[in-house]
Amino acid sequence: MLSQEMNSALNKQVMMEAESSMAYLAMASWAEQQPGLDGVTGFFYQQSDEERMHMLKLIKFVNERGGHAQIPA
Known about the structure:
The chain is mainly alpha-helical.
């Protein structure tokens, strides 16, 4: 069972991972509209996916240990 303090700290990390994923997604969307930035676009999409995977791992970790993962809006 997770302590309330640990649950809160992990939920803050979930939020940071979600925010990072969305920031990379925004950069990928911008780069996709720019000529000649195909490699950059792919890199940003890949980073967005990686941050999302971090978030999902944390959510599962919290829930599997009796905590309550909070999903950011």
